[in-house]
Every structure is written in C-alpha cells, then in structure tokens.
C-alpha cells in the first residue's frame, strides 16, 4: 500500500494573527528609525534599496487589507505549504508595487496607515474567508501563515542590510520555520532524510529507505534563521555547511539540489 498522505499542519489562528500583527509592529518601529543613509543602502535583494524593501513590507500589510475588501473567492486553491512554489511569477508585479507604494507617503505614515487597515480588516473577517489572490485563492487562515514568512524574512533582510536590531516575534519565527519545512517535505516527499530545525520543526523528506526506530541514517539539523535563509535563497548550502551552521550526516543528507524553495 502507498504511504498515507500526511494531513496539512494546523496553526492556532489567534496566535498567528497576534504574531503577524506584532511582527509588523516591530518592523514599523524599526523602519521609523532609519536614517537617509540607511534608506539609500542596497537591500541585498536585486536592485531594491532599503527604502524600497521597507515600502514593500508596508505593501504586504496594505495589500492584505485591500484583498479582504474585495468580494471573497468561492474555493481555496492553495494551502500554506504550497504557497512558496506559487510566488516566482510575481517578482515583477511585486517590485512595481513596492516602488509605487514608496511614492505614496513617508514610510512612517505608510506603516501607520497599513497597520490600521490591517487590524480593522482582520477584526472583520474570519479565517475561513477565501481571498482572491494573484497566485491562487487561499483561506485567510492559511494566507496569514504565509505572512509570517514574508515578515520574518524581510525583518532579517532589513536587519542585515541596514544594521538594525528589529526583534523576531517567537510565534512568527516558529510559523515561518514550520511552513518552509513543510514545503520542503512537499517538494521532496519521502522518509529517508530527517530535517530538524529545533525548537520548531522536524520533517521527513526525500525518497528512499524509511527508518522506523532509533536515529535515522540521514539527518540534517540547523537553526531557524539559517534554515529560513537557505529556504529563501539568502545563503547557500555549501556556505552554511562550511561554517558549521548546518550539520548533515548520511549519504542522502545533501539538500543543495532542493534549495532554495523560493527566492
């Protein structure tokens, strides 16, 4: 018999909503302190400056609020774990939206306005609401989990590019880590490799012999931020392996051909 299909991971909706709101608040306070020199720095993401990256984060919140103002879709097409693979085609649209957002108002005003709209929209809509999105329709509950990825990843981007110390909300970091780990398991289904990202995630992936007890023969372990950077193309497998930020044991424990999951 084929192995049973795993049920999608479930998330506590109240905690995810609180995590998204809190992480956006951390970002708003950090961005408000950016100097003109910091805003002009390269973000490390293509041709974007730090200012354009910061504007993109404001757009993330504002676009969700606008999406909830549109009529709902009928049926969800994507789950949270499938979302990373649907984003590649959006790079041009997102870049254009970031630049348009930046011309709309000073960054602190953009964040204040977007945060207020987001809070009101979340208050008015249940997690079962289906959003009509560019990438495919998703429930609000699932889409909010993907917002933890966007906010955590871009918090890390801004911290590194501008020398900031914006904190990462633990619940947002946990959800981001788990979603990307589940996406890996979806991309390379199987049970021959166990990927551990303590304290938040453990998944099995890659076709091959399964283990049933004891320590599996192929194990990858890393910390949450290194995992997130690997999964989103901010760093490379060989680089993190050489730096001892990743441990990999077993002949199947090389994930370089599977990463990044999104970029």
Q: Which strand-content bin applies to the residues?
A: 5-15%
Radius of gyration: 19 Å
Order of helices and strands: HHHHHEEHHEEEHHE
Mean pLDDT: 93
Order of adjacent strands in the largest pleated sheet: 4-3-5-6
Distance between the termini: 36 Å
Contiguous low-pLDDT stretches (5 residues minimum) are none
Continuous helix count: 9
What oligomeric state do the depicted chains represent? single chain
- Major sheet attributes: 4 strands, mixed
What shape does the CA trace take? globular
**Helix/strand structural class:** alpha+beta
Question: What does this molecule look like?
Answer:
By secondary structure, the protein is an alpha+beta fold. The protein has helices at 13-32, 36-40, 50-69, 91-102, 107-124, 140-162, 170-187, 224-231, 237-242, and strands spanning 130-131, 138-139, 193-197, 201-205, 219-222, 246-249. The strands form two sheets. It has a four-stranded mixed sheet with strand order 4-3-5-6. The chain has a two-stranded antiparallel ribbon with strand order 1-2. Strand 3 and strand 4 form a beta hairpin. Helix 3 (50-69) packs parallel to helix 5 (107-124). The radius of gyration is 19 Å and the shape is globular. The model has no long low-confidence stretch (mean pLDDT 93).
């Amino acid at each position: 018999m084929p192995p049973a299909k795993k049920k999608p991971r479930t998330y506590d909706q109240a905690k995810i909503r609180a995590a998204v709101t809190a992480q956006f608040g951390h970002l708003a306070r950090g961005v408000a302190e950016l100097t003109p020199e910091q805003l002009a720095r390269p973000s490390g993401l293509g041709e974007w400056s730090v200012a354009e990256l910061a504007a993109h984060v404001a757009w993330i919140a504002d676009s969700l609020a606008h999406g909830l103002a549109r009529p709902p879709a009928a049926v969800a097409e994507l789950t949270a774990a499938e979302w990373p693979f649907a984003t590649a085609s959006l790079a041009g649209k997102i870049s254009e939206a970031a630049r348009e957002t930046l011309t709309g108002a000073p960054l602190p005003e953009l964040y204040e306005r977007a945060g207020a709209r987001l809070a009101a929209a979340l208050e008015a809509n249940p997690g079962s609401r289906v959003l009509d999105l560019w990438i495919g329709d998703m429930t609000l509950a699932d889409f909010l989990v993907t917002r933890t990825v966007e906010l955590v990843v871009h918090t890390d981007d801004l911290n590194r590019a501008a020398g900031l110390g914006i904190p990462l909300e633990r619940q947002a970091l946990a959800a981001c880590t788990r979603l990307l780990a589940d996406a890996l398991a979806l991309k390379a289904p199987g049970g021959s490799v166990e990927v551990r990202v303590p304290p938040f995630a453990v998944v099995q992936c890659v076709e091959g012999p399964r283990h049933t007890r004891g320590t599996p023969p192929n194990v990858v372990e890393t910390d949450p931020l290194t995992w997130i950077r690997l999964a989103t193309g901010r760093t490379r497998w060989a680089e993190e392996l050489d730096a001892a930020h990743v441990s990999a044991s077993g002949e199947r424990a090389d994930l370089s051909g599977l990463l990044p999951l999104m970029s």
